[in-house]
């Protein structure tokens, strides 16, 4: 499907994006909470219980600790990949529900979301590959200049910039119906162009603030459960709290992507 013709990109309004995201969640909260529960809460809870955070053996040296972590992630990877695909489909389905003016049913939104998984996964693989190659080149250059610390900083800045500029690929695929991953990434870049710093600041601010809230609630909830319940039940309760907050955070970010795309693309792209 052809993407909309180029036009001047409006100035990004973070307050408007935030308010619209919250309004969209409120208007569709029953359906969105159910989808977030299925696609984010349950997988997150399963991972918390099956793969608790690894703690290297006491007294292990750096090499032993690295081997321990490699073994942990190696065991987790076969389960993480299908969960990632499932969450990608859920994300695209929720984007469809949040933005499609044709008011699709839940089944139609999920079907549309999973029908767009392949181009979305392809776009993420492309971004990951290119970012990895550029990161390696940056590090090699700064190591040659004997400025590794500056290389790490430059690499992080590049990663944040690339993530922000390609962040709207998901709504471009789900909402505008673009199925070519290269064109979806290009379209995202065009939409964000001129607003990358404002959008990056907004996303980082939301991420940091929400992460602090999640950590505080999780810590307080885990401590309280540890005082009131046996250890086994306290661990399960803490995992439920963490997974629930993670699902809510994922829902908020999906709604932010939808409202940001709607703001920067204009009404002509919605439900295209």
Automatic annotation (TrEMBL):
Keywords: Membrane, Transmembrane, Transmembrane helix. The keyword Zinc does not apply. The keyword Membrane applies. The chain crosses the membrane at residues 31-51, 79-99, 120-144, 150-178, 199-220, 232-258. This is Glycerophosphoryl diester phosphodiesterase membrane domain-containing protein. It comes from Novosphingobium aerophilum.
């Amino acid at each position: 499907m052809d993407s909309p013709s180029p036009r001047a990109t409006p100035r990004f309004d973070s307050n408007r994006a935030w308010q619209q995201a919250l309004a969209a969640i409120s208007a569709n909260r029953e359906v969105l909470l159910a989808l977030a529960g299925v696609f984010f809460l349950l997988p997150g809870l399963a991972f918390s219980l099956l793969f608790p955070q690894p703690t290297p053996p006491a007294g292990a040296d750096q090499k032993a600790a690295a081997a321990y972590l490699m073994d942990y992630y190696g065991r987790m990877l076969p389960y993480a990949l299908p969960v990632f695909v499932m969450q990608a489909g859920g994300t695209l389905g929720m984007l469809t529900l949040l933005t499609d003016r044709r008011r699709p049913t839940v089944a139609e939104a999920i079907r549309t979301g999973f029908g767009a998984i392949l181009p979305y996964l392809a776009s993420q693989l492309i971004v990951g590959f290119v970012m990895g190659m550029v990161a390696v080149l940056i590090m090699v250059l700064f190591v040659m200049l004997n400025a590794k610390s500056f290389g790490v900083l430059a690499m992080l800045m590049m990663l944040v910039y690339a993530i922000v500029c390609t962040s709207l690929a998901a709504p471009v695929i789900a909402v505008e119906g673009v199925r070519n991953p290269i064109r979806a990434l290009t379209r995202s870049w065009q939409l964000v162009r001129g607003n990358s710093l404002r959008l990056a600041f907004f996303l980082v601010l939301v991420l940091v603030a929400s992460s602090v809230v999640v950590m505080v609630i999780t810590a307080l909830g885990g401590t309280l459960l540890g005082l009131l319940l046996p250890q086994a039940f306290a661990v399960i309760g803490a995992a439920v709290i963490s997974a629930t907050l993670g699902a809510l955070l994922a829902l908020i970010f999906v709604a932010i992507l939808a409202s940001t795309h709607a703001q920067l693309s204009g009404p002509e792209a919605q439900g295209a």
